[in-house]
Amino acid sequence: MRTLKIDHIGIAVKSIEEASKIYTELLGLKMRGVEEVADQKVKVAFIPVGESEVELLESTDPEGPIAKFIEKYGEGIQHIAFQVDDIEKALEELKQKGVRLIDEKPRYGAGGAKIAFIHPKATKGVLIELCER
Ligand code: ZN
Question: Could you tell me which of 11, 14, 61, 96 has the fewest CB atoms within 10 Å of its CB?
């Protein structure tokens, strides 16, 4: 597998409208757009910075994974996403190494990217997302 760059950093927030001001008003970045991923019960806002992005995640459902995350840890960094050249191959390699995965097969995330999560128990507590665009 070839890991190309940090694609984005996923940040769990209670309100995209409120949290985005940190990146736009304080850091001078521009928000690219907001998209709903019904599957994950989230609204996602993208804020590009250089070759990477900040991804703000706001739950649309009190039972959704982001709502649960905030309940447990508060607002903050939720995952780090690495872009890979071939996600199927990457998952296959990790499986062969016995790495615990949340997604055995890629699914479609925001922006039509193919994504999969590695289990944080396998990565010292960091929720790692692989994505292929
Ligand atoms: Zn992500």
Answer: 96
